[in-house]
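SAMPLE LOG
Freezer: B-3
Tube label: C17
Construct: single chain, 183 aa
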Amino acid sequence: MPSYRIRTATPSDLDAARAVMLDTVYRDFGTGYVPRWHADIIDPAAFYLASPRHTLLVAVEEGGDGEGGREAGGAVAGVAALDSRGPAHPPNPAWLAERYPSGETAQLRRVYVRPGHRRRGLARELVRELVGFAAADGGYRSVYLHTDPAVPGAEAFWRSMGKAVCDEREDGGETVHFEIPMG
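STRUCTURE (predicted):
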């Protein structure tokens, strides 16, 4: 089994990280690139590298052939990002936007692992690193994310990591919102 190193992305990682993200939105989500939802995928440097309160992590396969780009010494097998933008209203419920305000909320984004590297604990380790980053920042009150429960394994994974705070399916929606403990 290959080994992995999780680290902060550098500019030389961005093409490979972008490929993981785009592959995921096309293959797993079936939406393809939607500009209003995925602008950060096209310009991850502006969204995640420019601010010291934001980050983009990469899980890089060490040794082995693996799939994906070969940047900075190995294949990028997974990515995960964090920024300080809380959920917007609309489209999210107003109470949710108030509970998780921008600037005080670390929002997890783009926690994606290539299919050939799944079931090895990479997503869980990426999330742990992001939560540690949020805690070290000192300015975040909470860690928040939303997921599409129609994606196989997504809801069960996030329920194992945190607490569902809003299930929009109860009102005809499609999104489940979670808070991840920071401690």
